[in-house]
Fold these 2 entries.
Entry 1:
Amino acid sequence: MLIAQISDLHIKPPGMVAYQHVDTAAALARCIEELNRFAPRPDLVVISGDLVDTPLKDEYDHLIRLLAPLEIAYAAIPGNHDDRALMRAALPGQRYAQPTGPLNSVHTVGNLDVVLLDSTVPGDDHGELDAATLTWLDATLGASAARPALLFLHHPPFATGIGHMDEINLHNANDLAAILRQHQRARLVAAGHVHRATLTTFAGAAATICPAPNHAVALDFDARLPAALKIEPPAFHLHAWFPDDGFGRIVTHSVPIGDFEGPYPFFDGDG
Ligand SMILES: [Fe+2]
């Protein structure tokens, strides 16, 4: 099974760039081209928040037009730049677990349960899983002991060393960890928010941050530096699950977006 993750699209109204430097619409269009031509085709694309930038209805309308060429089913959760009501209205086909409030959902992909958690706090930038989401996650993971689960949420439940981002990460990570430890079937906790490829562990699972198709948050470990962005090579994550013994094996690949030389065979016919 292949789950592609794209994150932090930050779509603006048509014709506008983000942060005075970034054409996020063009970046998403290139990302979708890359996803459509990837073989074998991913089974699902997860969009892990910050679909738009302000948020405005115009931006969601623009986003929907930009997503139209994507030939793979997608599931989305909000980030701190999103608005739940605007997102529900813009993406009526999403199967959210609750009719109001947080935009949580679970998707069966072959042997996997792909669990999407809404970590947003309306009106604030940091993340927090509210009581309804924690209860729902506990019940969702409790529904099976045999299937591996992959969790997606916008806000990382761990610090990265980038101070201004760590201040607005998931503030109740301990509540999430307690539920994961109780059920023992999460194999991946995949976040966005930081626009960088990052790897650690969390509550016994691999934990990643997905890079963005547009700009990166500058890798500054000096907390005195102002928040800054850099135009680094764009990428998305491809989470591949292989059915080994037990819960199988999850391997995350970072896939650069763009046209590169090759592939060339390593060896010609003469060896
Ligand atoms: Fe974010």
Note: Residues 49-50, 79-81, 154, 193 surround fe (ii) ion (CB under 6 Å).
Entry 2:
Amino acid sequence: MTINGTAGGEAIGPGEILALFRQERAHTRADLVRLTGLARSTVTQRLDTLLAAGLLIPDGESASTGGRPPTRFRFNAAGGVLLITAIGASHLRCAVTDLEGKVLAEEACESDVAAGPHVVLNQVMGLFETLLTVVGSVPRNVRGVGVSVPGPVEFATGKVISPPIMIGWDGFDIPGYFAAHYGCPTLVDNDVNAMAFGEQRTYWPRHPHMLMIKVGTGVGCGIIVNGALHRGAQGAAGDLGHIPYSGGGTDNEETEPLCRCGNIGCVEAYAGGWALLRSLRELGHDIHSSSDVVRLIRAGQPDAVRLARQAGRVLGQAISDAVSFFNPSLVVIGGQLAHADEPLLAGIREVVYRRSLPLATRDLQITTSRLDYRAGVTGLALMLGDHLFAPHAVNQLLGVDSGGGDTESPILAISPHSQDGS
Ligand SMILES: [Zn+2]
């Protein structure tokens, strides 16, 4: 079926039409005629194609302007499910969502990412099967799989490359693993990019310039510029945890803490959950995880509060540098340590507002994540939906050449960078 050469010579296939419904810009035939300039007969043809494929469904009837009320349509969010997993350093969260990213069922559990891909992904598969049963679905309804990891992934293949804390994952083909089970596209991204995407899309659409700082076991930064994720040339943008902290007030390297990456004095070596855990254990506190650290801070334990304030100031310096580079209107703090609230946030705010130029901070908001523990799975589901239902992907699925867009591999791998979190 050829759909090129329509009104105005524009290539407006079913995929482009579906996008108008997903963006809620169109609800009726009349909307489509007005928005696309296509002939009514062509619009009807596109709609029939989308209805037959189950991508679009009738949605009641809209108010009439006289005569027969025009039928309304909407994207069929229930036309399949997405399987999502956000893998952290010490635990993971799995969810089944509808095709609009609404969480239908979810479950989290402890998981040591250093146990390697087979152990961790088998755990994920087990949860996926349980969750599919919970929502009354089956593997053949799965339209896509979204995975976020606390490590670097090769852009073209979705393979994890030399991850500092993901022992045994080097070169592992995550999309291949899921393709063998579900035969559908798999999107792989870095954890903080997924969180940034979810947070901005869900709560902050009026803030197209945003930084998402994840303070979990490690520290990372997701950068949204002009409403889109900024990944950099290799996907390594935003590696905030391993830039050096220069405010230690000493030139003596021996007094600066050793980082997991092998360097000394990194931001993460002061402010990451693992660093706070290390410092508190050295002070004699019998604790074992980032959640224990948060518990001590919230309980007002003086050592923990002092270290959290210091971590906030270290993060504040790094964020202030990032604010000077990107001039965001919003900085969102997420990850487990965000639950430390005031001691951490006070340190961050104090330094960012003091160090950054007045113009950069005049309208700058610094806040904690609203999606909280769901930021990763929500962001992945929304990102996956955008890829699966991109106009060219839909046209390809329907066997229609719209003449636009790239051909997309069935494996979707979005390049992330090395960051870590729990
Ligand atoms: Zn480091």
Note: The mean pLDDT is 87.
